[in-house]
Amino acid sequence: SLYVSEYFSQSAQKLSFYSWYGNAKLFHFHVPEDTVLLRWLLQASRGKGPECTNMEVTVHFRYGAPPVINPLGTRFPANATVRPSYNISMTLSSAVQNNTFVNITTPAAGDWFIAAHLPEAAGRIEVKGFSTPCTYMFQPDMFVLRLIDMPVLEPGVAMTQTVVSPAKPLHVKVFVPKYTATMWFELRSCVASEQKACAVRVVLGSITLPQSFQRILTCTGNVKCSLGLDSPPWEKWLQIMVENLGTDNADVSVEMVASFTACKPGSTSSFLNFSSLNQSQTGPRPGNTGTAGSHALPAGEASHNASDQRSFCLQSQPVVREDLDVVSVRYRLLNGPSVPVYSIFPTLLFLGLNTGMDSGGSLVVNLLLNKTSLSLANATVLACVSAASPVLSPNATQNCSTAFFQGYPLSVSASSTEAMLIVLYPETSDWFLSLQLICPKGQGECNNAEAKVTVVAYLTPCFNDCGLYGQCSLLRRHGYLYAGCSCKAGWSGWSCTDDTKAQSVSAQNLATLLLTLSNLMFLPAIVVAVYHYCLVEASVYTYTMFFSTFYHACDQPGVAVLCIMDYDTLQYCDFLGSVVSIWVTILCMSRVKKILKYVLFLLGTLFIAMSLQLDRRGVWNMMGPCVFALVIMIAAWVYHGVKRRRCYPSSWKRWVFYLLPGITLAFIAISVYAFMETNENYYYTHSIWHVLVASSVAFLLPPREKHKKPWAWSQKLTCRYQICQNDREELYAVT
């Protein structure tokens, strides 16, 4: 045998602490056909700074679709199928890097997915650039060993092969055709080279994670051994591995044969249905006087179909797949939404999810029983949803299992007429829905019975669009798209249906009122600014108060939301007003000349607008203008002090009753904003930030100039032409 090794790698990704599925970093690999060994090299590393601590990285594996994970232990939506993912943990302690190998023999060919993440997020809101978080990186590499010219076992033809040694097992494959009901594998002979009794182990199927359904057959001596597989995967290669269990290195010759039992599908006049669909879309053709959709069969053919009905293994209903959007598919039945269900054979519906881009959503199947169509009141319609191959005998297989897949059961009856199934991240394959009528006293009771079941099946990115307290986000890893729910207002879970820590409506209203009404603390600052003739500053504070109020009214996660314009516009205006307010306040305190002050107002506002457009949440968008304005203020105060030969501001009352309280409030506000805010206490800590900042502005604004009088509107308006200002003019003599 000739083996070829291949290597696949993907770029490293920065890991995140887990709060929702978008924090997990997804890697997508494709395992080629005839792969006999798969090895993953998992590389996790962390930074070398003092902020880096011991950390545990969790890695999940799944075949066919992204892994369904639940690190937070939250609840899944009702009727959802959840099977725990296969995962391992990698610890980053004293070592900067951790390399771990994962080996899988005879892996299933197709898509494999790896998801990695850090432990649960602490929920603390960190200001970007204020602290340096530790960087944790993860990169998987995949090595495969592929067999060239793997022997093909033809159906019904015996094949003799030799197992060279226990270290080199024999690999063969057989193709399973469509409509296969049963596969029968038989090992006819097993002869050792030294005429000794041989012992071999036959493994049928490939390994899939998180669950593997390989069938193992152990044969000893010359006794024939066989194994039957009900409903093997249709139109796929089935890999068979034969291992020598002997202790010596003697060759073992084995003879094997595989046979199939076909399942004859019943006729559903699918060609006539497709013709009806075409005519219903394009209208009747000229010269065709018949009615579209009504087709009468000859009496002889109808009686022939009725006589052969019992020879059918299943009855397939034609289904049309309609692609609506990304990870959004609707399945439409050509014969109408209701399908007939019988007891003598199952009714089969084909749900194609084999494009490679369908596994990132949720498959939803709804069943509704028409009670008037059910002739037997105690009968039950049993349904099975399975991948790769259908369940052909739901009455005998109550757990809906096939040869290599565990299906999902559904049932409707006269007492419970509705049933729903949600398959989260369905694996890439051909999916089938099998329905059959079951009678409690045996199938003879309902041989002539029939039931009508309305079937609604569709693929959606997020079930129920993540509900009222969630947002469905479309995630991307290279060219692969998948969806996840980001929950709000304390709700959690896969579809934001877990209300264990959910906020009540009253709590949501309280949060909205605190975050919005706390901005009214800018009113004292506006009044003080107007009283001190700082009209530009008062305009900036009014702008900030307005947009901060309505931004937080729009930013709420629950039902108490009010958006007067686009969210992004409100956020930008709020951030801009906040930084410009700090900028103009410090410049106003510096007491520079008016013309210079207004020039700095304008230039600073333009640069702040530019920096916010580049990085809205960067810490230097606020710290930069603050530091530059403080340098200007200190320089101006030093200039005034040197010129007057005394401390500036010179009044001790100004320092004790205004500057020191204002500076104290500002420092407390910065500490709350930078170190105390979390996702849980945001609504009241950020409200405290609003109150402290607005109050500090009212204390820090400088008093009006001494030669200016307070606002006296009666005196100012008596001139009726202009408001006069008594400024001293300096006269210069030119000599």
Automatic annotation (TrEMBL):
Record-annotated membrane-spanning stretches: 510-533, 595-614, 620-639, 655-676, 682-701
Keywords attached to this entry: Cell membrane, Membrane, Transmembrane, Transmembrane helix
Predominant location category: membrane
Stretches assigned to the EGF-like domain: 485-496
Membrane-topology descriptor: Multi-pass membrane protein
PROSITE patterns (UniProt xref): EGF_1 (PS00022), EGF_2 (PS01186)
Protein location: Cell membrane
One GO CC annotation: plasma membrane
Family to which the UniProt record says this protein belongs: Belongs to the TMEM8 family.
Protein name: TMM8A factor
